[in-house]
Design brief:
The protein is mainly β and 228 residues long. The protein has 2 helices and 16 strands. The strands form 4 sheets. Strands 2, 3, 5, 6 and 7 form a 5-stranded antiparallel sheet that branches. Strands 10, 11, 13, 14 and 16 form a 5-stranded antiparallel sheet that branches. The chain has a 3-stranded mixed sheet with strand order 4-1-8, with no helix packed on it. The protein starts with 8 loop residues before the first strand and ends with a helix.
Length: 228
Amino acid sequence: MSLLNEPPHNITVTFSLPPEFSAPLDGDNETVVDVQVINTWQTLSIKHWKHPAIVDGQWNFRFPHRYSDGSVKYRVTIQLFHNGQPLLLEQDHFVIVHQFPHRQTLHLSPVGYLYVEVQEPEMIPPEQAITISLHENESPDVELARVSHDERTATSFYLEYDPEHVLPGKRYVLTGIENRYHQRLSVFPEGIELVPATHPPRSRLLRVIDQWLNEPLRLFTDSLSKIR
């Protein structure tokens, strides 16, 4: 993998949100996108982009591709903020470029809508469907959502769930079962936080106090010799 001598090409990714998602128009809004190369000996930042509004629907985003040969793996992270609160699930999206030009669609998951990809199943009759279950990790019987699909619609779709029944910061699990033979299917993502944990901004004074509390405790007696 070597750097291009001529000006870099641009990779285009299309961010896609579910049609049911409606971005808030009031308050403080922001869209943040980060792109990094991750298949080198260290992570390299390629682009950091901020926009003082929420970009929804389907929209194109471009970042530079500076390598002339070999496959390059990019990690793309995106977040939409409304009044400082994240609207998307925290996920890494990967773009692997083997040759140029390269275009790719990245499906985003807002809170309440999880984009699911299922292992390509073999041909089965529609009445012998595939069941996808979203449930607690420790208690598979405690389900948040359950849907059935035939082989034509089970490869990728949005699974809707109620965020009010989800604990922020807790990881939940997806499982897929082929109903005829009860075989497990590979489902992505396997586990995810369905509501990101919120961390309210802390004042500079609180950060200083926290740093002071985390420093090794120095006893007053340790300084007696200096006082003398």
